[in-house]
Amino acid sequence: MNSYIGSEDDKVYNTSEKWFVREKWAHYALIRKDRNKREFIRLLTLTSIKAYDIIFLSKKGLIQTTDTGYSPESVAFCEKNPERYTRIYNCLPGARGYQGTFEEFVGAGNIGFTDRAKKWFPFDVINLDFSGPMFRHEDSNTSKVMDAILKMFMIQEFTKQSFTLFLSVPAVKKWDDETGRKQLSDCLSVNLTSQETTKFKEAFEQKYPSKQINSYYQFLLVTVPKIIIKYGQSKNFDVDCLDRFTYIGENAQTKMVSFIFDCEYKGLPNGYGGENPASVLAKVYPDRVLKTITQNYIDINRVFEEQSEIKKKCMEYKKQVA
Amino acid sequence: MAKDKEKEEALKLQIGQEQIVHMKVAAQIIQHLSKGIYSNPANCIKELINNSFDADASKIIVRAKPEFDTFSITDDGDGMNYVDFSSRFLWISRSDKRDKGENTKKFKRPIIGKIGIGFISVSEICDKMTVISSKRGEKFKFQAEIDFGKFKKTVHQKKDFYEISEVKLTNLEEKGDAHYTIILLNGLTKDFKELLEDKDIHEAGIKIATFEGRKFEGIIAEIEKRYLDTSKDIGGYWRLMLDVANTVPVPYLKEGPVKIKNPSWFKEESKSINNLKKSVNKLGFLVDFDGVIIKKPILLPGEKDIFNNKESYDLYYFEEEFNDFPDGSKLKLRGYIYNQERQIFPPHLRGIVIRIKNTSIGGSDPDFLSYPYAEKLFLPWVFGEIYIDKGLEDAMNINRSSFIITHPHFRKLKNYLHTKLHAEVFPRCRVRYTERKEETEVTEKKSREENIKGYLKDIFNKNFQIKPLDKTGKFPVDIDIEKKEVLVFKGHPVFKKRKKKEKDLLEEVLILFETSYHNAKGDLGKLKDYFINSLSEWANLKK
Q1: CATH value at residue A229
Q2: I need a surface site. Which of A51, A200, B188, B281 has the fewest CB within 10 A?
Q3: pLDDT below 50 — which residues of chain B?
Q4: A78 is in which domain, residue-wise?
Q5: Roughly what angle, to the nearest 10 degrees, separates helices B216-225 and B236-247?
Q6: Contact A99 B143 (CB under 8 A)
Q7: Which ranges constitute the DSSP H helices of chain A?
Q8: Phi and psi (nearest 5°) for B515?
Q9: Number of structural domains, chain A?
């Protein structure tokens, strides 16, 4: 059914750049499926109105479908806006839909989890594709979104479930507030002063001789993985940032940064035997944070300029799913 | 104004003087109505889907599963602007749907809605409703958030009108060629949710059928295959789906409503029913219910009732018009009646469905509008649908599920149906019943004889003949081992004044006794043992 909200949504979610990222999602989702030894993945997503990511992953055989739609165990989504929620739901018969934000879904800012979170978790793949600001605090000390991400790690830890996290956020400085930016800066400062991460300090100063990251998207490309690694570690997950992207969609105005994180649960099964997870995580930590500086990120717009055949391929995905 | 009227009509009766006053309706009635006009929440959903039909929608999408946290209905119909919304939703019973004619503009569908009261019932099943709609040709949409929650408490206060919800309206930008209506129900009432989740049934530990991930045709096949009674063997959600499918004007199943095994049978009737089916399918109304494209759940006969003999079925098609009402009104109908030689399965396909404006009123009535004759045995053998093309609408009760039984149109329809059943359908059933009864008797008799012969062969190692004789003898049964004959003296007094089944049983027991007697050769102790043993063996043999 034709709609303004649908075509506006397409400007953000149906760009060749987004399809480039989606292709990567499919690749890593397949790896996760095999590692978790599952026939199909259990996906939680903040999806587009036409549910492109789910349809794409489903075409790749990663999502469980039925004769009439989707298996509820395989697909869950959150969306607050009633029109968007209904339109997404219309594309996904049989899937689990939560009419609320991701933050509300996990019960960010409250003690405990919501009934729905308790029932639907764990997931193998979580796709947090935010189109709005991630680091806004309003009245609280921590951003609701960040609190929700921490809760997500908590509940995955509770179920001892390793997972892959896709995280996309707009790199718009004015959308995030000062407290949020400070939270990210502090996270960076810690590693620049810590004895454990001297290699990080060296690499940072080599890459940024002025000791400052001037562009906001580059700042996010470094700080967001750092904070996710930190959150993950606090809940016994070894978080490895597998890929980082930046892009501006062909019809969009907003610069985006996108990450793929491997979140491997290192807690002890049943709480007995084996190496202490804290020491396991402490060993890998310096390398994980170092990687946020040394790892190359992919500027999708530049890739398209240099390799038009890749853009062509992504445009084909667009056509296939449409 | 109401106060003035009340003052004007204040009673001041004096002896011998007349005073004219008027009966009035108090506004509280709306508050009572808003608490519930339907016996079943499914009716609220049906009403919302019927609204989409009246809006010339070609596709409706319903979403509720798997969690039943929300219930949404989206259509691609003409849509509304806030002015339309105001007249149809903000004022109860001010429907303007038929102001511009009896049919819809695009598909020329007969408009279902009339009173404008269906929407009020939504508050029965949820606390909050969001309506988002864009009218064809307009470049904006509106969003209305309706909060029923705080108005659910009864207020004992007299008012000119009652507020039954609080509505927050917003206008937003939209594309000019967009036209749709989205209805999202939030905060489903505990009772409605538990009904859909079958909470009571699960708690009672009763097993019920579900059809997860099945297409509609698969669901129907499963119900039929497993002889499921849709009124109790399936869950509340599936019942709701079937109920909606049976009520709203969706198309028939590809092979439905009646698939005739041999195309040469009931040629004329089949052709007419096919035309009726085409007229319904032409309405172009497609409902996607959680991914299941629903159709009318009517497919007769069931797989197990496909007989090779034409005589096993009857099919009647009829069209009728009645013009003899004192008020000059008309009643015009068309329909069919299907009948088979035994009970129809599944049970929801027993009865008569009355459809006004293509929408069924109260589902299938197994009592055929209170069929009065002593032929109730045959009612479960019959199914029919009657489409009312003109009239009967005023005979409908406000809940659209039942009729005012004193209304002349209803009485006419009832008499017509009863006469049709009594004079045409059931005489055939009676003939078929008698024929089948006779056939069964012959088969049973043959089977009984075979059993007795088999038993005698086991005992005497000989093949016996059973000879029934009308005369009486010294004993009611005698065995002649030499001649290999069992003589049954049907005229013997022990057989007199007994029902047929008793006579048959007695005959069998007496043969056992005679057999034991012959074997015991005068030893009474042995006779007793043999007879008791033979009764046990006989029971096993009969199995």
Answers
A1: 3.40.50.150
A2: B281
A3: none
A4: 4-321
A5: 110
A6: no
A7: 4-13, 16-35, 52-59, 82-91, 102-106, 115-120, 144-158, 178-193, 198-207, 216-234, 277-294, 300-306, 308-321
A8: -60, -45
A9: 1
The candidate with the shortest Cα–Cα distance to A258, out of A266, A267, A249, is A249
> DSSP string of A35-88?
HTT-SS--EEE---TT-HHHHHHHHTT-S-EETTEE-TTTEEEE--SHHHHHHH
**Nearest CB to B74 within list A90, A94, A99:** A90
**Above 90 in pLDDT, residue A189?**
no
User: How far B404 CA sits from the closest chain A CA (Å)?
Assistant: 39
pLDDT at residue number B92: 62
Mark out chain A residues that contact chain B at CB-CB < 8 A. Answer: 1-4, 7, 66-69, 71-72, 82-83, 85-87, 89-90, 93-94, 96-99, 116
Which amino acid would we find at residue B197? Answer: E
More confident residue, A235 or A192: A235
Q: Do A85 and B70 touch (CB under 8 A)?
A: yes
User: All domains of chain B, ordered by start, with CATH?
Assistant: 34-187 (3.30.565.10), 243-435 (no CATH), 464-542 (no CATH)
Amino acid at B104: T
CA distance B506 to chain A (A): 59
Q: Encode pLDDT of A17-69 as tens digits.
A: 999 999 999 999 999 999 999 999 999 999 999 999 999 999 999 999 999 99
Q: Indicate which of B52, B60, B67 best probes the interface with A, i.e. most A CBs within 10 Å of its own CB.
A: B67
Interface test with B, best of A83, A91, A99 (most B CBs within 10 A): A83
- With an 8 Å Cβ cutoff, are B177 and A2 in contact? yes
Q: How far is B52 from chain A (nearest CA, A)?
A: 14
pTM, rounded to two decimals: 0.86
The shortest C-alpha distance from B140 to chain A (Å) reads: 9
Token pair of B301, please? 């006969």
Nearest in space to B182 (alpha carbons), one of B144, B237, B136: B144
Cβ pairs A/B, distance under 8 A: 90
